[in-house]
Amino acid sequence: MSTSAPTPASLPAEPAPPVAAAAGTGRPARRGVKTVADMFRSLAVVIVGIAVIFGSIAFAAYRYHGKPQLEDVSTGASSTFDIARAQASFPLLAPPVEPAGWTLTSLRWDGGKPGVPQVLHAGWVTPDERFVDLEESGSDVAPLLAAYVKDPQPAPPVTVEGRAWTVSTNHDGSQTWVAHEGARWIGLTGGGTPAELRVIAAGLR
Length: 205
Hints:
It is built from 4 helices and 7 strands; from the N terminus they run ααβββαββββα.
């Protein structure tokens, strides 16, 4: 009696490997498909990496330069003062461009057009990295100084080079000086000390 070899069709089918269920769901996990949480985690890693790179660059730049670099605008200052004096309807005084160790960081003359209030603005950074602001105008400078002044309190007046200044002390201890001479108003303020304000006041010519 001969026996025939079993054909593939007659062999019992091997059971398929079990499919792992997704954790906590009871449903089979789908391989190769990222969830929204996975994508957010990947994005967070990228953002952190970028932040670390930029932070390292900024820190290296700070260490190399020592401090933030401020633009020096003293070049052409004399011509700006000449233009301002020629156009001003009041006797404008030119401040010192750059006292020793100071940096002139802003200089602007407004008033070359009819109807535009005439104002000379100048700003410096002192050797101790404090800011001093000058506003000179043919009208009251109080509105121009308002951005720098908060809760001013009257302080004893000062006289510098024969010019009298009204003084007020601001909420942070800094001072604001104002001089009114006929058609000319001058204001000094910022974070500078009284001694630093005196430097600019004494240099007005």
